[in-house]
């Protein structure tokens, strides 16, 4: 029996994104990082919940992603936890994203950071914001599933 391939190890996940947005399309982009950032990512010192992606001069940038420096960071390096980080994507994909982001209501939201072939990748989604009633529906569905699971668990005791 063949083993199922393991999913890429996740470094950080933006759980708020799925609650606040409907995802239309997903993209995977490389990240330009400094050495101290890679070491901090290996230690799990990253927060993605306030992050968002912008397009400037035909290039993608991740803003609001916080990578806390390790205390053992080198003295000659001046680490900035919330600096703007460049994302790497093919030019034709960026052009397609520019056209879609300029439409009303669409934005680029980072979903997670993960390792792939020894490199850090950022999975992002072209997303549209949810209205308040959609968020309430999401909460209702989640609580309904939780009730069903509780009932099934109580039944099997």
Automatic annotation (TrEMBL):
Keywords assigned by UniProt? Cytoplasm, RNA-binding
- Cellular location(s): Cytoplasm
Where are the stretches annotated Disordered?
A: 131-157
Q: Which GO terms describe its molecular function?
A: RNA binding
Name residues in a coiled coil: none
Its chief place of residence is cytoplasm
Q: Which GO terms describe its biological process?
A: trans-translation; trans-translation-dependent protein tagging
Q: Which InterPro entries match?
A: SmpB (IPR023620), SsrA-bd_prot (IPR000037), SsrA-bd_prot_CS (IPR020081)
Alphabetical GO CC annotations of the entry are: cytosol
Which Gene3D superfamilies is this protein grouped with?
2.40.280.10
Please give the function described in this protein's UniProt entry. Required for rescue of stalled ribosomes mediated by trans-translation. Binds to transfer-messenger RNA (tmRNA), required for stable association of tmRNA with ribosomes. tmRNA and SmpB together mimic tRNA shape, replacing the anticodon stem-loop with SmpB. tmRNA is encoded by the ssrA gene; the 2 termini fold to resemble tRNA(Ala) and it encodes a 'tag peptide', a short internal open reading frame. During trans-translation Ala-aminoacylated tmRNA acts like a tRNA, entering the A-site of stalled ribosomes, displacing the stalled mRNA.
**Family, per the entry?**
Belongs to the SmpB family.
Protein's UniProt name: SsrA-binding protein
Organism lineage string: Bacteria, Pseudomonadati, Pseudomonadota, Betaproteobacteria, Burkholderiales
Gene giving rise to this polypeptide: smpB
């Amino acid at each position: 029996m063949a083993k199922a391939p393991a999913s890429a190890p996740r470094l950080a996940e933006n759980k708020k994104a799925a609650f606040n947005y409907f995802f239309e399309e997903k993209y995977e982009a490389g990240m330009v990082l400094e050495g101290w950032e890679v070491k901090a990512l290996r230690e799990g010192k990253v927060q993605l919940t306030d992050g968002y992606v912008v397009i400037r001069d035909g290039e993608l940038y991740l803003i609001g992603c916080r990578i806390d420096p390790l205390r053992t960071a080198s003295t000659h390096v001046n680490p900035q936890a919330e600096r703007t980080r460049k994302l790497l994507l093919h030019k034709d994909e960026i052009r397609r994203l520019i056209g879609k982001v300029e439409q009303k209501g669409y934005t680029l939201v980072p979903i997670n950071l993960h390792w792939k072939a020894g490199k850090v990748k950022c999975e992002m989604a072209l997303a549209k914001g949810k209205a308040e009633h959609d968020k309430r529906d999401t909460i209702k569905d989640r609580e309904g599933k939780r009730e069903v699971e509780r009932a099934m668990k109580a039944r099997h005791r």
